[in-house]
Amino acid sequence: MTLLKSIPKIDKFINNKAFDGYSKSLITKISKEIIQNLRSDILNNNIKTIDENLLISQTIKEYEKQISPSLQTVINATGIIVHTNLGRSLINKDSLNKAINIATSYNNLEYDLEKGQRGERYSHIVKTLQALTGCEDSIVVNNNASAVFLVLNTFCKGKEAVVSRGELVEIGGSFRVPEVMTQSGAILKEIGTTNKTHLRDYENAISENTSMLMKVHKSNYSIEGFSSEVDFEDIVKTAQENGVIDYYDMGSGHMIDLPYNLSSGEPSIKELMKYNPSLLSFSGDKLLGSVQAGIIIGKKELIEKIKKNQLLRMLRVDKITLAILEDTLNSNLKDELDSIPTLQMLNTSVKTLEQRANEVKNAIESLCKCEVINTSTMVGGGTTPNKKIPSVALSLEYKNLKPNALEKLLRKNNIIARIENDKVLLDFRSISSDDASKLSTILCEVFN
């Protein structure tokens, strides 16, 4: 009981000079929790003395922990460029700086400078998308999942959307096409089999209640062997002949052909637009290499109907997203693809990757066992499933640490590696040029 009486009073404890300059309300909250834990420890006979300096130290440590940002920068050494868990595509710094200027100033987000009246926020990217793809109109929402939901809800509520069984996908976060269709109010009409769908399946499925023929990109997997699917060009023709909408959920989507034959079997956005489709949707933050967004392009009359859907207000994007996206699209339009980090990393030569890996090896080889090796990796983010690209990695061994322990040690220092064939690898395909120069410094600190 004597020890309980020695517990510092909260009002006195929080006024200690050690807390000068700290938020009084947060210090009070943390202090109450720490002193409550102290009281429990005393009652459970876990401590015999009270050290007020230790309590102060614990309070400050918890304070610093709470105010430190949870979202931190890491070095992506996994080899996966579009890594869903690590923020997907990197944003060009110049694009971000332009967005900062927009965000910290009043701007014409919904104001027409020529007419001097209310404007439309989506107009800022329409002109560029028209020039890039030849579309009649476009709209942007917060991601491609939203785009899919909005399209289905606008045109298929209470009506049928025809989809191949081989395309009823589930992607990360348990996003399932059949469930999204149900939530949107669309009636799913499955056709074909898991491995084979023919054009006649689409044709036979069309009825008076059919609103749409829908094609879905098979993110994260591919069907090979005794299989077939219908080209979108044929779906577009069939839809137009029968007076229904054709729609391609491209998932990641890519504006141009990709290196290492990654585009094989997957037409680009520009190629698909040659078929004069009704609607396409794709992500802004994957192979386009920009900010998170869902972009819908297609016929003007259909885009206008989407704009009238009340759900759009819940799914719309803000000024920062529009500013960054517009700049990335302009980079595509001007063929300045090296300014898009995702495409720059995809196109970096193996020779350049070897040079970067050897520079790091030379800096750390006296501290640990390391070797530059040839390897392969994937783009990631559900793009180009099962297609590999060549890369270069630095394999690491340190003291007697097992691979899992070494990977954990690197992770504590915000280096995210991968383990392959019982070896810890730093894959330079996903290490940006800026991060490559930082890597040696961090590794020297870790291994010292």
The portion of residues assigned to helices is 40-55%
Question: What is the straight-line distance between the termini?
Answer: 49 Å
Total strands:
17
Assigned CATH class of the largest domain: Alpha Beta
CATH architecture of the largest domain: 3-Layer(aba) Sandwich
Low-confidence stretches: none
Count of DSSP-assigned helices: 18
Total number of domains: 3
Strand order of the largest sheet: 4-12-11-10-9-5-8
Task: Please name the CATH topology of the largest domain.
Answer: Aspartate Aminotransferase, domain 2
Largest sheet: 7 strands, mixed
Dominant shape: globular
Strand content: 15-25%
Q: Which structural category fits the helices and strands? A: alpha/beta
Topology record:
Blueprint: H1 2-5, H2 10-13, H3 24-43, H4 52-67, E1 75-76, H5 93-103, E2 111-112, E3 117-118, H6 123-133, E4 137-141, H7 144-155, E5 160-164, E6 170-171, E7 175-176, H8 177-184, E8 187-191, H9 199-205, E9 210-216, H10 232-241, E10 245-249, H11 269-273, E11 279-283, E12 294-298, H12 300-307, H13 312-315, H14 319-333, H15 341-347, H16 350-364, E13 369-378, E14 388-397, H17 403-412, E15 415-416, E16 418-420, E17 423-427, H18 433-447
Parallel strand pairs: 1-15, 5-8, 5-9, 9-10, 10-11
Antiparallel strand pairs: 2-3, 4-12, 6-7, 11-12, 13-14, 14-17, 16-17
Helix pairs in contact: 3-4, 5-14, 6-14, 7-8, 16-18
Catalytic activity: L-seryl-tRNA(Sec) + selenophosphate + H(+) = L-selenocysteinyl-tRNA(Sec) + phosphate
GO molecular function: L-seryl-tRNA(Sec) selenium transferase activity
Keywords: Cytoplasm, Protein biosynthesis, Pyridoxal phosphate, Selenium, Transferase
